[in-house]
Amino acid sequence: MADPANQSALVTGVTGQDGSYLVELLLAKGYTVHGLMRRTSTFSTERIDHIYQDPHESGARLFLHFADLTDASALSRLLHEIGPDEVYHLGAQSHVRVSFDQPIYTADATGVGALKLLEAVRDYRDTTGKTVRFYQASSSEMFGKVHEVPQRETTPFHPRSPYGVAKVFAHWATVNYRESYDLHASCGILFNHESPRRGETFVTRKITRAIGRIKHGLQDKLYLGNLDAKRDWGFAGDYVEAMWLMLQQDEPDDYVIATAETYSVRAFCEAAFGRVELDYKDFVEIDPRYFRPAEVDILLGDPTKAKTKLGWEPKVSFDELVAMMVDADLELAAREKTLTDAGHVIVPPMGE
């Protein structure tokens, strides 16, 4: 295993939930980290602002680069400019429900984007002779209409959304490049992983965000879709450690990363509202707009392989995760209430 203090890594999706936790982990281990982000009209770096410093300052080890996963030439140039030891591919159009509304873009960014990055890594390796280790963020949504419970590395894929289909493409492209070109390329089949940094349109954060606003009188109702869908929910901060461990192995491989426990959306609501001594039934209403055209009824992962080969274990329990997210959003809503009382106009999150 190489000395992390002399290692550099490229992280796509660096401003997302997983990207922010992974950057924290890599910096703590002594890496120099390069983050890839899309250029937009707003500089959306809130999740990493607490660890970002001026790249011109002495000792800076986090650098941000603008590039798009749909631009193969930009990805290739960036690889040659940075020369990373490891590439963590987390970037994607990652919202399942949105993928039904934007299937072409999802396929291009989430699926073909991974192939373009793999090709850039292969070209860089072949041109320079330097070995690059590659991590692909695969997803439990690839299992979709599950063929067995729990799901493991050998379970057949049956995706039920354009997002799931795109992730299957990216997953098999990674396996193909590993087998065809001898790339050190591994796939982490991550089941649902949440945190206070989760985007507000994802169901867990949508719930905890609403609870904070309801407690502070800023919102009356929460509108959700299928309350009976079951998911294997873990803490994102635990899951990025598994990503790093995969790239420290002598041989690349694919791993299911999960808690081996499943809870319904309804159970999440019960636990989250219970944290503030409220009954979710008094506030949650069903809105058909939030139902998927094709539902994934149950996801439950078997992380035995990751535990055995990587020595990885989830540390944060379901109840601890729920409490962490609710408490953080109570604080956020309290600050929002202060601004509202002072006459500032606050745009409510989706779901009110």
What does this structure look like?
The structure is a single chain. The protein has 352 residues and is α/β, with parallel strands linked by helices. The chain folds into 2 domains: 4-196 and 233-257, Rossmann fold (3-Layer(aba) Sandwich); 203-229 and 262-298 and 317-341, UDP-galactose 4-epimerase, domain 1, CATH 3.90.25.10. 40% of the residues lie in helices and 15% in strands. It is built from 10 helices and 13 strands. The protein has helices at 17-28, 72-82, 96-101, 103-128, 162-181, 203-215, 236-246, 265-275, 304-310, 318-341; strands at residues 8-12, 32-37, 62-66, 86-89, 133-139, 184-190, 193-194, 222-224, 230-231, 234-235, 254-257, 263-264, 284-286. The strands form 4 sheets. The chain has a 7-stranded parallel beta sheet, with helices on both faces. A two-stranded parallel sheet has the order 7-10. Helix 2 (72-82) runs parallel beside helix 4 (103-128) and helix 8 crosses helix 10. It is globular, with a radius of gyration of 20 Å. 46% of the residues are buried. The model has no long low-confidence stretch (mean pLDDT 93).
